[in-house]
């Protein structure tokens, strides 16, 4: 995470300057009064915190599950966003094809979760987790062990 955030910033800043820089500097909304500047900076910081939280949650999800689970979670997020838009924004309607697409996506997510639950139930027994295929259990690594490297 410590390496990804600066790389993301270095990658995005040139594009932000190229596409929005001149328009932003000429805008009276940013530098006309201190209050508008502070409000603008607040919303920029708020967006940055949300983006950081999203990236952090994706790292956590992949660390504890898999990339496929992240993909399924992304599809679920898109479905949720579409449903909220249809419910909350007047004039948004779903066609029959859109509804069928949502139903297929929801069925796919449900099927994936069902398979994942069955797999987890079969590998977990009352005696604890099944031994690894190599015949040994992995060694737990602590933060102090990592710092020593």
From TrEMBL:
Compartments, record wording: Membrane
A family per Pfam: TPT
Transmembrane segments: 34-56, 68-87, 93-112
Domain of life: Eukaryota
GO cellular component, one term: membrane
Main location: membrane
NADP as UniProt keyword: no
Sugar phosphate transporter domain segment(s): 7-113
InterPro entries: Sugar_P_trans_dom, TPT_transporter
Renumbered residue ranges of the record's region Disordered: 122-149
Keyword annotations from UniProtKB, A to Z: Membrane, Transmembrane, Transmembrane helix
Topological relation to the membrane, as annotated: Multi-pass membrane protein
PANTHER family: SOLUTE CARRIER FAMILY 35 (PTHR11132)
Name this polypeptide is given: Sugar phosphate transporter domain-containing protein
């Amino acid at each position: 995470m410590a390496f990804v955030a600066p790389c993301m910033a270095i990658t995005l800043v040139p594009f932000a300057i190229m596409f929005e820089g001149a328009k932003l500097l000429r805008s009276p909304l940013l530098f006309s009064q201190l209050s508008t500047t502070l409000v603008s900076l607040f919303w920029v910081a708020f967006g940055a915190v949300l983006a950081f939280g999203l990236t952090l949650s994706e790292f956590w999800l992949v660390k504890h599950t898999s990339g496929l689970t992240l993909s399924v979670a992304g599809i679920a997020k898109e479905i949720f966003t579409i449903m909220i838009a249809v419910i909350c924004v007047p004039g948004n309607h779903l066609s029959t094809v859109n509804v069928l697409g949502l139903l297929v996506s929801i069925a796919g997510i449900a099927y994936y979760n069902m398979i994942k639950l069955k797999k987890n139930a079969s590998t977990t027994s009352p005696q604890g987790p099944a031994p690894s295929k190599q015949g040994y259990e992995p060694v737990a690594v602590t933060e102090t062990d990592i710092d020593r490297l």
